[in-house]
Amino acid sequence: MASLTSPWLVLLVGMGCTFLAAASGGSRNPTAGFEKVELTDGDFQVQSPSNVPESQRFQYRNGVRTFWVHRNDKPINTATHTNPRSEVKLRGHDYSSGVWQFEGYGYVPSGTSGASVMQIHNQEGAAHSTILMLHVYNGVLRFYSGTVVEPDIYNRWFRLNVVHDVRASTVAVYIDGKHKFGTSVTPSESYYFKFGVYMQHHDQSSCMESRWTNVTLYTKH
Ligand SMILES: *[C@@H]1O[C@H](CO)[C@@H](O)[C@H](O)[C@H]1NC(C)=O
C-alpha cells in the first residue's frame, strides 16, 4: 500500500494532499456586462471516488472547497470506468444558449500533475463529453494536454474566468483578469461547468489536489 493511502497519514494530514501553501489575488474584470446567477450550496453537487467516504476526498471549510484524489482511487460509481475524480458539478445550471461565464479562485499545490481542474461538460450522450478542460501537468495549466494557458500555476490563488459564447461556439480563458486563451469549440445541445480534480492519462502524480473559493456563475443574453 502506498504511504499516502495509509489511515494514520490521512489523520495526521487532516485534509488534502501533503503539499505546502501561499496566497495572492487578481485584477481587472472579465465579468463586465454579465449578470450574476444565484447559486446555493445545493447547486454544488460533489462527485468523489467510490472507494472512500466523500469526506476523505473533499472538504468545504471557511468558504474553500478542497478536492483531492489518489492515482489508484476508484471511479465515482461502479457503472462507469472513468478515472478517479473529486469534482463539483454545478447542478441545475445546464445551459444551451446565451453567453455563460464561470468564475472561481483556484489553487493548485505543487506536486499535483496529470489532472483536469475545470471543465465545460456536454450533456450526457454527446459525441465529445467536454468542450473545454483545463489540465495541470507539472505546474503548467493547459487547454486539455495542449496549448499553455498559464505556465506557472502552482502554489498561488489565481482568479479563473471561463467564458462560453454558445451562439458563436467560442470559449475564452482569463487568468487574474488577463485573456490567456481562446478557441472555437464544437457546438452541442447543453453544457454545465465542473471543477475540482479529475485524473487524466499521463504525468499523474500519486495525489492530485485543487482548492476553489468564491465560485460565481454569470450569464449574458
Ligand atoms: C473570496 O471572497 C472574500 C469575500 O469577498 C474575500 O475576502 C477573499 O479574499 C476572496 N478569496 C480569494 C482567494 O480571492
TrEMBL record:
Record keyword Signal present: yes
Secretion signal span: 1-23
InterPro entries: Alginate_lyase_2, ConA-like_dom_sf
Alphabetical list of Pfam families matching this protein: Alginate_lyase2
Positions of the Alginate lyase domain: 44-217
Keywords, ordered alphabetically: Signal
PANTHER family: BINDING PROTEIN, PUTATIVE, EXPRESSED-RELATED, BINDING PROTEIN, PUTATIVE-RELATED
Protein name: Alginate lyase 2 domain-containing protein
Organism this protein belongs to: Triticum aestivum
